[in-house]
Amino acid sequence: MERKSWLLSGGQGSYPARLHELLQQGKVLMAPGAHDPLSALLAKRVGFEALYLSGAALSASKGLPDLGVLTVNELVDAARSIVRAADLPLIVDGDTGYGEVLNILRLVKELDEAGVAAVHLEDQEMPKRCGHLEGKHLVPVDEMVSRLRAALQARREILIIARTDARGVTGMADAIARGQAYAAAGADIVFPEGCRALRSLQLFAKPWRHL
Fold first, then answer.
1. Most CB atoms closer than 10 Å: which of 108, 115, 128, 208?
2. What is the per-residue DSSP string for 131-144?
């Protein structure tokens, strides 16, 4: 059945709520990368139920390195177009928040208004580096907690994901400690960057298994 264009369609419901429901189903949720509406529609056509807008992919599509040089407007415009085209929950890579607390407030509000389901913020220093590169530096835990609190204050519905890059910088023990601190600060989801094996993910998740 042909789907109506965003211009003619009715209310699309709450994307954060839809993502939350998918995550509660007890199975692995695969969210393929989509950097524009066409790639999003292709992913939807083959059956994916959620999408992911990577900062690295969006940067590459514009001929830029993933070193924090995208602007908020470029990210929000891309996210809005993808949500309109695909009508699926979209997770967005928010890097370090594009600045200090006021910038994070704006980023979260703009993405929330665009219908984005979730955004992740990371604990790297600015300017950040792609998570797969060497030479990353982390901010203190309390600074990342301040970022998260700003995001939580700004959001209406959007889910807030706390990403830690500690696994590849200071080790798994620090990644776990940071993850626990970010969860305590109110993050809806914690994302450990750099876990390349199932064993690493299991180790990171162990403190949460009783919850």
1. 108
2. TTSS---BPPHHHH
| Residue corresponding to tokens 């807008």 | 53
Sheet harboring 189-192: ordered strands across? 51-53, 90-93, 118-122, 159-164, 189-192
| SS3 state at 189 | strand
Q: Would 23 be classed as within a structural domain?
A: no
- pTM equals 0.90
Find out whether 125 and 166 touch, Cβ atoms under 8 Å. Answer: no
**What total of structural domains would you count in the chain?**
1
- Whether 19 is in a domain gets the answer no
Question: pLDDT tens for residues 117-155?
Answer: 999 999 887 777 665 657 678 899 999 999 999 999 999
CATH number at residue 101: 3.20.20.60
